[in-house]
Amino acid sequence: MFLDLLRRRNPGLLAAAAHLHDSGDLPANSYALDLDTVAANAAAIRREADRFGLSVYAMTKQVGRNPDFCRTVRDAGITEAVGVDLQCALADRHGGLGIGHLGHLVQIPRHEAAVAAALAPAYWTVFNDAKAAEAAGASAAAGREQALLARIAAPGDRFYRGHEGGWAADEIVAVADRLDALPGARFAGVTSFPTQLFDTAAGRVVPTPNLGTLRRAAAALRAAGRSHVEINAPGTTSTAILATLAEAGVTQVEPGHGLTGTTPWHAVTDLVEEPAVLYVSEVSHLWDGRAYVFGGGLYVDPVLGLGGTRALIVPRGGGLDDAYLVDVEMPAPEAIDYYAMADVSAAPGCAPGDTVLFGFRPQAFVTRALTAGVTGIRSGAPAVAGVYAADGSAPIGLEDTAAGDGPGIQAARRAGRA
């Protein structure tokens, strides 16, 4: 699905990835990020958010907290991140982003609250009184007052299985008073997830009941005398939804796939953001009419599924004009994705070492894939900015690329480390 979008809206990324993999600068099992396009997408989101007075926190987990991605987003005007967990927040800080929000979706373990407080997050989400006390205590010990967001839920709200948690929304006034009474903390607002989702029938993103729950809670808080209530409303965020969120009273938004142009809405409608990420693999071997291509980052998207997966196989030394468009059997979700299997019955020239390019929605942080920012695509001089592991750290053997000291994997190979 996103491969077709890349071929139509960003063929330069496909061509650059094929060239850089063929030259040895871009490894197999890596997500290639078009940093020029990421910058344009981030700037567009920032401009639209500014129109409505919205705070913007970048979600970086889907691209493995890549430091070059973080710096690109920061330089485009989105200077703070949301850490989906503490590790994400630490990687974002290392990448040059401030921490706008943590604790949501994943709460902070009790013995790590001091580490979280040291990041000085603008907002910290808590699900219950115990977690609120931990956050407040750690913040007080750090000599600061922490703004807390309360995760709330009401009957009929929608949550992914395993994401449940929070206070009953109809108790929010009492909850706010309790959080205000904690030394080292103050109540700041409410949050939930997902507050909007892509609706297949409608062909667009629509609010979930959770957004209405947040609005009603904010109204109750204002009626109780609180003049300002932050409303944090994450989920399927792009420029196209910001006006709707602002009208609903939302104050904080958290684009993730919007930064790479890969929300489900982007798959069916040409939105402002352009596609800026693809997955790079390589033919390992041929067997029984199929090319086995390296996996490791073949994420199975629970929203869009696997239907009709295709890839481009680019022969060694060739370009997009020489590429074969092939059907691919992806590994089952419950299996380790050592390989995907491409039908090469109509690709007689396919051989081991050929480049394989996929277009799908990534969640690099739950894979063992690498990530690599690519610069200069728009100017016609593409280069790998750095190669990182899925947690944002430099992979063993590729230190030169991560530090920006060399053009790519070839430098590491010449140094005898790859």
Defining traits:
418 residues, alpha/beta, elongated
General description of the model:
It is built from 13 helices and 20 strands. Strand 3 (80-83), helix 5 (86-94) and strand 4 (98-102) form a beta-alpha-beta unit. It has helices spanning 2-9, 11-22, 35-52, 67-75, 86-94, 113-118, 129-141, 172-180, 209-223, 239-247, 264-268, 399-403, 409-414, and strands at residues 30-34, 55-59, 80-83, 98-102, 123-126, 146-153, 167-168, 185-191, 196-199, 204-207, 230-232, 252-253, 277-287, 290-294, 310-314, 324-329, 339-343, 355-358, 370-375, 383-388. Strands 2, 3, 4, 5, 6, 7, 8, 11 and 12 form a 9-stranded parallel β-sheet that branches. A 6-stranded antiparallel barrel has the order 13-14-17-16-15-18.
